[in-house]
């Protein structure tokens, strides 16, 4: 295990070396030549330079003002319209600039002005002094407002980040009956705050990086210091630092670039849209990666079992949660295997089903022009097309699709005798079962593998299904996510961790955090929480 | 430079190897693929096989297969042309398999035997011998060995398979269910499967017993769809009594009393009723048996012969009283009726033993097996001569009836 883990790190390191060579070439073409140069002292020159660099973009606003000090210093306020909060901008930046009279400022040298402003005038939370153009543009494009003064090459940035963004809504991909109704938004600050509101501990640490040379996307690593494994953290930092890419538009970019295993349909990094689920994972010693611009937060290390857990499991009673867990595992198997088992039975193993069922199936197959496997394949394909169409359709047309899909495909095709009703039943039940999984990403893997299994079943029957399942198991047991075996705790077996797999043990029994994760701090509940038999005992 | 190219060649070879392995595995999957593919709509599902003597005498047997016409079974399914749910194909041959393969001259679909539920043997064929007929069923992996076997009493198996039935659209289902229902509610017949038949041929030299079935009504109407639209059906199959064999050849049919007696002794009765004459008045009452069990004990007699002790334990309740003066509230009455019931069971069992020992002279009771299991020393001595010695074996039947109730009414309304 340990050896394996080290190898993972080594590989990431090697990648870095390779990538840095590539990155050098990259830099020569892309890097802006002004990056480290300081700002100009002259206001006019600065303004000209900014306008020129930004192609005189219309949304970059230059507001020239004059301070009311004795020498009437010229001030230039620069911001990008739409990215700042206009009200806060007026109230905390522009108004103070206008209003303030500077008794002391009269004598102040121009290069003292920025410091003075920072300390006495601007009442916004985050104020920085800017020294070079790189910082300048970074802040400008994050939605800060920048204040430049005549006669000094120092500037001040003030955070008035705002503008219209989507508010907090119910998560669209992970529904729950019981549990918080809030989902992450596109704003990374709102997202980190949502997690902080769940875990109010100074030990919840946050590291921020900027990834994407053009997009300059803020990326945060969040973890609970003392629970998260230092080795995993180190590894993750290395992998994130190794990313040299022009743009990161969604956490999917990061996910793909930090994965250990590329050649697999199974997701080795989990994405979550629910703050409570992220908090739960942090408490187990996992690490969250937040990316600005997307409500999907990544969790590492990921094991397969996590895709069968829903945050709701822990809010329901444990017996009900256990039933739902098992239902999910069964549904996953159905979603994966049902069409291929049907095809195998109908084409090879007719002796394995009850006679009455066989006769019913045979009666349905009567006069159907395609062999069973082709029928199943076609119907699966039709279903996938329908499903994709419904997702991409403008929502106004969604109803049309479901009517056309439901009626035309479901009924007419059977009535016309082109496919047998049994296949329609199998495909629709498979479809329903595939939606039971709380994690969309594993569902997609099952969708792909379904076709592979269908192929195996139609050529080799149960034997073929057995072969493919065996290969899948081999493959699964070979996957690792940040050094943690993907099939943990089943293989390798961690007996204690089975409490949260097929069953969801009562909370008072889940005393310890998952093994191999919170290695330094395994105990979740300090006190014995067993339910009392009699009051007062 | 040369080193580099050698390394390159090595890498090339490794890549070749990988390619070769991939190619081979692809071949092994694709070439082996579909070797057992059978399309469901190209199968003729055989529900039952019937074997008769070839009437022309040229060949050994005449085989009839009852094949389901799936398109007609599910009437609601589309595409059916409407018609009989099954049809039969008949062919002669010297062996079963020969006849089956010769049938392909008449069928458009391959016959499929994995769902065959029953083997029906015509009476004439049964008298000639049944063991040769079950070899194929045991040997061929496609045919199950848990299919039940029956004798067609007084007619050909072919005729029975051609009979339309009203309660089940597939005739063989009706016949198959009939035995099970009868075994569970009257206990006069019991299911005998091919594997049991084969097991009997082993140690113990047990002789076969098979349920028998006959046709009632107007036989010539049996294969007409018209038969289905009449109430009651013009011709319908009905269970008869057990058929006893000796050396695999049918010897005789048992009488109803003996038939149930044998079922008691074989521990095959699940539930039945016993009709008794009322103790103090005219009329009858009925004891329903819920549970019956039999225990054999084998003792050694001074002359070295075994003594078979059969102990029957019957649990039941009074379920019908058609005479006055039976006071079920009185425990003494209940005990008295219990004694009467056990007397009936005992007499039935003894009738079966008498029949087996005196008239059939065939060990249909399986006593040889009991002796073999419980007194192997005696068996060793008698084994070679068992057929001759069986009729001389002494036996003792005891029966205890345990009545546990009298239904949901007390006194009878008959006054």
UniProtKB/TrEMBL annotation, chain A:
Q: What are the protein's UniProt keywords? A: Membrane, Transmembrane, Transmembrane helix
Q: Where is the composition biased (Basic residues)?
A: 1-17
Transmembrane stretches, by residue range?
A: 287-308, 329-348, 393-412, 418-440, 452-476
Query: GO cellular component annotations, sorted alphabetically?
Result: membrane
A GO BP term here is: spore germination
**What Pfam families does the record point to?**
GerA
Spans annotated as Disordered: 1-35
Q: Which InterPro entries match?
A: Spore_Ger (IPR004995), UPF0353/GerABKA_families (IPR050768)
Which protein family is it in? Belongs to the GerABKA family.
Q: Which protein, by its recorded name, is this?
A: Spore germination protein
Q: Which organism is it from?
A: Paenibacillus arenilitoris
From TrEMBL, chain B:
Q: How does it sit in the membrane?
A: Lipid-anchor
| InterPro entries in alphabetical order | GerAC_N, Spore_GerAC-like, Spore_GerAC-like_C, Spore_GerAC_C_sf
Q: Where in the cell is it found?
A: Membrane
Please list the GO biological process terms of this entry: spore germination
What Gene3D superfamilies does this protein map onto? Nutrient germinant receptor protein C, domain 1, Nutrient germinant receptor protein C, domain 3
What region holds the Spore germination protein N-terminal domain? 38-214
What GO cellular-component annotations does this UniProt entry give? membrane
Is Lipoprotein one of the keywords?
yes
Q: What are the residue boundaries of the Spore germination GerAC-like C-terminal domain, all occurrences included?
A: 242-407
Domain of life of the source: Bacteria
UniProt similarity note? Belongs to the GerABKC lipoprotein family.
Specify the protein name.
Ger(X)C family spore germination protein
């Amino acid at each position: 295990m340990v050896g394996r883990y080290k190898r993972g790190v080594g590989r990431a390191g090697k990648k870095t070396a390779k990538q840095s060579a590539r990155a050098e070439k990259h830099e020569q073409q892309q890097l802006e030549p002004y990056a480290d140069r300081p700002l100009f002292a002259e206001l006019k020159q600065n303004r000209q330079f900014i306008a020129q660099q930004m192609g005189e973009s219309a949304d970059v606003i230059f507001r020239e003002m004059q301070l009311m000090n004795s020498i009437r210093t010229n001030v230039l306020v620069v911001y990008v319209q739409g990215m700042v909060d206009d009200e806060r901008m007026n109230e905390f930046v522009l108004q103070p600039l206008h209003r303030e009279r500077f008794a002391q400022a009269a004598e102040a040298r121009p290069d003292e002005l920025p410091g003075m402003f920072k300390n006495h005038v601007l009442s916004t939370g985050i104020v920085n002094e800017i020294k070079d153009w790189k910082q300048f543009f970074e802040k400008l494009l994050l939605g800060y407002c920048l204040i430049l003064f005549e006669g000094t090459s120092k500037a001040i940035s003030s955070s008035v980040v705002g503008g219209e963004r989507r508010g907090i809504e119910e998560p669209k991909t992970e529904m729950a009956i019981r549990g918080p109704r809030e989902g992450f938004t596109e704003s990374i600050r709102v997202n980190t705050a949502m997690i902080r509101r769940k875990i109010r501990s100074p030990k919840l640490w946050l590291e921020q990086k900027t990834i994407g040379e053009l997009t300059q996307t803020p990326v945060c690593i969040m973890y609970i210091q003392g629970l998260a494994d230092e080795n995993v953290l180190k590894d993750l930092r290395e992998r994130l630092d190794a990313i040299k890419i022009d743009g990161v538009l969604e956490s999917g970019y990061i996910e793909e670039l930090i994965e250990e295993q590329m050649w697999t349909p199974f997701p080795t990094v989990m994405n979550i849209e629910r703050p409570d689920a992220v908090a739960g994972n942090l408490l187990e010693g996992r690490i969250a990666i937040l990316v600005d611009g997307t409500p999907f937060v990544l969790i590492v290390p990921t094991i397969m079992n996590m895709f069968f857990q829903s945050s709701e499991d822990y809010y329901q009673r444990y017996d009900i949660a256990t039933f739902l867990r098992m239902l999910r595992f069964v549904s996953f198997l159905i979603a994966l295997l049902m069409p291929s088992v049907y095809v195998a039975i109908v084409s090879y193993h007719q002796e394995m089903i009850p006679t009455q069922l066989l006769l019913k199936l045979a009666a349905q197959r009567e006069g159907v022009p395609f062999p069973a496997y082709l029928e199943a394949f076609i119907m699966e394909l039709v279903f996938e097309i329908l499903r994709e169409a419904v997702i991409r359709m403008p929502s106004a047309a969604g109803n049309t699709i479901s009517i056309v899909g439901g009626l035309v495909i479901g009924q007419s095709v059977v009535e016309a005798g082109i496919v047998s009703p049994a296949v329609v039943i199998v495909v629709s039940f498979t479809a329903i079962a595939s939606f039971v999984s709380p994690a969309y990403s594993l569902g997609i893997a099952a969708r792909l593998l379904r076709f592979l299994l269908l192929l195996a079943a139609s050529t080799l029957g149960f034997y073929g299904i057995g072969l493919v399942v065996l290969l899948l198991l081999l493959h699964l047991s070979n996957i690792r996510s940040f050094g943690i075996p993907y099939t943990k705790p089943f293989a390798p077996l961690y007996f204690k961790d089975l409490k949260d797999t097929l069953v969801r043990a009562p909370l008072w029994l889940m005393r310890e955090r998952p093994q191999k994760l919170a290695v330094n701090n395994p105990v979740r509940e300090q006190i014995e929480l067993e339910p009392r038999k009699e009051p007062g005992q | 430079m040369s080193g580099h190219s050698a390394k390159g060649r090595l890498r090339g070879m490794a890549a070749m190897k990988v390619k070769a392995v991939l190619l081979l595995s692809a071949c092994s999957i694709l070439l082996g693929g579909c070797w057992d593919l059978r399309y469901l709509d190209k199968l003729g599902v055989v529900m039952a096989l019937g074997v008769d003597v070839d009437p022309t005498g040229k060949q050994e047997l005449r085989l009839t297969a009852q094949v389901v016409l799936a398109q007609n079974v599910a009437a609601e399914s589309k595409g059916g042309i409407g018609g009989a749910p099954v049809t039969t194909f008949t062919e002669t041959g010297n062996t079963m398999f020969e006849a089956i393969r010769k049938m392909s001259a008449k069928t458009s679909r391959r016959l499929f035997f994995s769902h065959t539920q029953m083997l029906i043997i015509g009476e004439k064929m049964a008298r000639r011998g049944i063991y040769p007929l079950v070899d194929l069923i045991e040997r061929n992996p496609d045919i199950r060995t848990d299919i039940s076997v029956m004798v067609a009493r007084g007619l050909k198996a072919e005729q029975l398979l051609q009979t339309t039935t009203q309660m089940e659209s597939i005739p063989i289902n009706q016949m198959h269910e009939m035995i099970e229902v009868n075994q569970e509610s009257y206990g006069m017949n019991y299911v005998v499967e091919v594997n049991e038949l084969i097991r009997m041929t082993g140690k113990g030299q047990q002789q076969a017993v098979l349920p028998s079935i006959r046709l009632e009504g107007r036989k010539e109407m049996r294969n007409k769809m018209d038969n289905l639209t009449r109430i009651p059906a013009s011709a319908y199959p009905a269970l008869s009594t057990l058929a006893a064999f000796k050396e695999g050849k049918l010897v005789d049919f048992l009488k109803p009393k003996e038939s149930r007696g044998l079922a008691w002794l074989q521990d095959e009765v699940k539930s039945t009723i016993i009709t008794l004459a009322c103790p103090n008045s005219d009329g009858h009452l009925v004891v329903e048996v819920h549970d019956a069990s039999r225990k054999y004990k084998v003792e050694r007699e001074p002359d070295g012969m075994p003594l078979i002790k059969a102990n029957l334990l019957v649990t039941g309740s009074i379920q019908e009283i058609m005479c006055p003066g039976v006071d079920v509230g009185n425990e003494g009455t209940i005990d008295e009726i219990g004694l009467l019931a056990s007397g009936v069971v005992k007499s039935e069992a003894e009738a079966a033993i008498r029949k087996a020992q005196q008239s059939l002279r065939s060990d249909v009771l399986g006593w040889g097996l009991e002796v073999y299991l419980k007194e192997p020393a005696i068996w060793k001595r008698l084994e070679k001569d068992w057929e001759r010695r069986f009729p001389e074996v002494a036996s003792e039947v005891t029966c205890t009836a345990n009545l546990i109730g009298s239904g949901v009414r007390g006194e009878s309304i008959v006054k």
